[in-house]
Design goal:
By secondary structure, the protein is of the alpha/beta class. The chain contains 12 helices and 9 strands. It is globular and about 55 Å long. The N and C termini lie close together (11 Å). The structure holds phosphoric acid mono(formamide)ester and norvaline.
């Protein structure tokens, strides 16, 4: 039966560990996998902008002998109102997997329901599971363990939600600090009982080995700029906050970053920052995910 990655909760603990380990092997032994995706084609549907996600999926396919087709929703009939189910059925006749970045999470669920080939969520308003696979790989590469504390600061939307789900599945200590009106969705909070949700940044930061933040203004929220900024001022990752973390903490950011807003320049460009390893690992982790969905 085909398997999709719509939510982080679609993967088991064993599957996540397998993808992280395979991603590391693929990074270290690139030649071994150079024709893994021979004759395989990935469709990449984008309704929002992207640098990392588009490039990492496309290069994952091309460097493994496969191909990828970029589909902007404005250029395909989906953007003019063709149904998601017809789109899923038509694409399933041509290609081997579908990756989609869009707004509504339920549109990706519907695409997965009607598609005969694996569907991968490449960011919705609710979740960003591919990002978290790369983040876990980056944490494991740098820390050699998941027996540590992750502290996330900022908006409790897509990235934070997938992070919380993954931490809960893997049993990683995780604290998510957000303003009360921007906490992770209640449904996900109830499903991830091991995660600490708080509006207290100091409580979250204490003893953290991984410090993570995301933009305060997500794609599609540009008109909320002024309104949101005033809630998030205390959630900035800066020297004062990181002084509460472990001395050897690593700093993660899914990017794109806004220096001086969610993170200060000295932290994002400082010695604890591993943001470019994290960005690179999008390609390796997704290659491992595709390997699992297409070939196992
Ligand atoms: N982190 C991430 O998904 O980046 P892009 O928006 O550039 O794809
Ligand atoms: N929360 C951000 C993540 C970008 C990768 C957004 O949705 O725009």
């Amino acid at each position: 039966m085909k398997k999709d990655l719509v939510s982080m909760s679609d993967l088991t603990k064993e599957e996540i560990i397998e993808i992280v380990n395979l991603g590391i092997d693929m990074k270290n032994n690139r030649d071994k996998y150079c024709s893994s995706f021979k004759n395989k084609i990935l469709a990449m549907i984008f309704a929002k902008s992207s640098t990392r996600t588009r490039l990492s999926f496309e290069t994952a396919m091309l460097t493994s002998g496969g191909n990828a087709i970029f589909l902007n929703t404005n250029d395909i009939q989906l953007g003019r109102g063709e149904g998601i189910s017809d789109t899923a059925k038509v694409l399933s006749r041509y290609i081997d997997a579908i990756m989609i970045r869009t707004y509504k999470h339920k549109d990706v669920q519907e695409l997965a329901l009607h598609s005969d080939v694996p569907v991968i969520n490449a960011l919705t308003d609710d979740e960003h599971p591919c990002q978290i696979l790369a983040d876990l790989m980056t944490i494991y590469e740098h820390k050699k363990s998941f027996d540590l504390k992750i502290a996330y600061f900022g908006d409790g939307n897509n990235v934070a939600a997938s992070l919380a789900i993954a931490a809960d599945i893997l049993g990683i200590e995780c604290a998510i600090a957000s303003p009360n009106n921007y906490m992770v969705d209640e449904f996900i909070r109830n499903k991830t009982k091991s995660v600490i949700y708080t509006d207290d940044v100091e409580k979250a930061a204490k003893n953290a080995s991984v410090v993570y933040t995301d933009t305060w203004i997500s794609m599609g929220e540009e008109d909320q700029y002024e309104k949101k900024l005033k809630y998030f001022a205390d959630y900035q990752v800066n020297k004062k906050l990181t002084s509460l973390c472990k001395d050897d903490y690593i700093f993660l950011h899914c990017l794109p970053a806004y220096r001086g807003k969610e993170v200060t320049e000295d932290i994002i460009d400082g010695q604890h920052s591993v943001i470019f390893d994290e960005a690179e690992n999008r390609m390796h982790a997704q290659k491992a995910l595709l390997y699992k969905l297409l070939l196992i």
